[in-house]
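[Automated response] Your request has been received and processed.

Submitted sequence:
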Amino acid sequence: MNIEALEPASYHDAIGRLGALLKDAVDGGASVNFLAGVTPAEATAWWAARSAGVAAGTITVFVARDGDRIIGSTLLERSRNPNSPHRAEIGKVIVHRSARRQGLGRALMHAAEERAHSEGRWMLVLDTVTGSPAAALYESLGWQTVGTIPDYALNTAGTPEAATYYYKDLR
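Generated structure:
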């Protein structure tokens, strides 16, 4: 499996495929910012809105590919605050429904953690749906639970569900 960090030019070229990945996730019930019925244009626009951060180097997008198709992604979003040069957030860990249970999520997380560590970003944070398969993945990778917020976000069906926050200290 090939995991790569997208540079700004390759990111721009991948936005449409990332949008298709995001749409697949939402269509499969994943709680990743959207409700059921997300359009390809809406999913693509979400990724396009991150272009400036990718160009500035504050966001790195990691992808897993199957040929030309993007079948997995995650974001490393670096804190820009003067008091937190050691911190980053992990976001949009998505694996296409056709490629799940093959270790892609784990490989994407390792790539993001390795990049963060190599840059001196040793405090990582993320959130996910409480009790989800993603939560089990993060816990298996050594992420520590901070706490749970009830009714934090709407799932794809529009029903409120809890989110659990995690951190990982890479030191």
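Summary generated for your ticket: The first strand starts at residue 2 and ends at 6. The longest helix spans residues 8-27.
If you did not submit this request, please reply to this message.
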